[in-house]
Amino acid sequence: MQLSIIILNYNVRYFLEQCVLSVQKALEGIDGEIIVIDNASSDASCEMMKTKFPHIKLIENEANLGFPKGNNIGVAQAKGEYICILNPDTVVAEDTFSKILNSQLITHNSQLGIIGCKLIDGVGNFLPESKRGVPTPWVAFTKIFGLYKISNYFGKYYAQHLSENESGKVDILVGAFMMMKRELYLEFGGFDENCFMYSDDIDLSYLVLKTGKSNYYFHETSVIHYKGESTVRDGTYMKRFREAMQFFYKKHFKKSWFFDVMMQVGSFVFSLLKKNQQKNEVRIIDEYVVFSRGNLELNLSKKATYLPDFNQFENQPQKNIEIIFDTTTFSFVEIITFMQLNKSKNLSLKNYISSSNYLIGSNNSNDRGQIILL
Asked: What one-character DSSP code corresponds to residue 281?
């Protein structure tokens, strides 16, 4: 078997369904498998998987075991030569896995470590955490206090030596999408289970670097990552994020009094800023534009215009228009391309998932997204 997709889920039933649908399409023509691990969700995620995807391997944990252990459990049952750690709040394009597997990164690179791809949010904006540098004390300082926005000299945290549309070596990749050989993952025992979540991807990326292998950012395929959906950013989030950062620093850097004080203050400020970024945007929709090549009719609250082609769309900046994509007649590649080309138009975007008759999307990478049951 060539590829195993590992999806760890916790209470994001509708995002998980969309994610699995996209992965199924992306695995067509590939000898692959999907493994879903559920960390004791209470939102009927497991019931949905058993009903909608009975042929997919589902592992039901009796408790929330965290990101590292949950993924390790899944990889332990994987059969693929390669694995892809994938968040449930993602949507992959139909050609995502084939492009990577057929690239020279795979076919001509004996020192390959981990591969990450171009991540975008729910309205098409590039997510800079798609490629990062090692968060040394100085790099962390420039990130926490926003110095990377001033000059690329301070841009190591987001690996600004590469543009978003340029593939190349980077130090750190994000756990929302990490593709590598299964034997490489197992060589390190997977994610470090001493860390509940938040620094596990940094830790694994850094361990791979220390062996002399190279991690790569691959820009030729884009994946939607809604970001806010898998984690509620409350007081518990702050505590765990701060502990995770401190865990990474203590594990990999020389201990000193100054270092400890700076990192405790810095990680606290960083976690506080991330918590304060979360917001649920309320947007009043004037009308809908539904892209569908079929005879789709949705029960919507406002006027809806149905179009079979993107070229027929004319944006009206004076109106709050929400665009709905019929995912049964438009490919995820087409949808993702449209999102990126129109990211500056301040559009509200949703995908229609016919298998459970709902709309799904997120207009801000810091909120928890929106599900509309029809």
From this structure: -
Q: Specify the pTM.
A: 0.89
Cα gap 344→339, rounded to integer Å: 9
How far is the C-alpha of 347 from the C-alpha of 33, rounded, in Å?
35
Sequence-separated contacts (24+) of 141-148 with Cβ below 8 Å: 141/262, 141/266, 143/270, 144/266, 144/269, 144/270, 144/273
pLDDT at position 148, please?
58
Token pair for 114: 């981990």
Per-residue confidence band for 369, with pLDDT thresholds at 50, 70 and 90: confident
Q: Map residue 319 onto helix, strand or coil.
A: coil
Write the DSSP string, 120-151: E-TTS-B-GGGSB----HHHHHHHHTTGGGT-
Maximum Cα interatomic distance, the chain, rounded to a whole number of Å: 67
For residue 113, what are its two tokens?
């470590």
**Is there a contact between 109 and 148 (Cβ–Cβ < 8 Å)?**
no
Residue 198 pLDDT: 74
What CA–CA distance (Å, rounded) separates 369 from 280? 8
Domains for the chain: give ranges and CATH numbers. Answer: 3-225 (3.90.550.10), 235-277 (no CATH), 287-373 (no CATH)
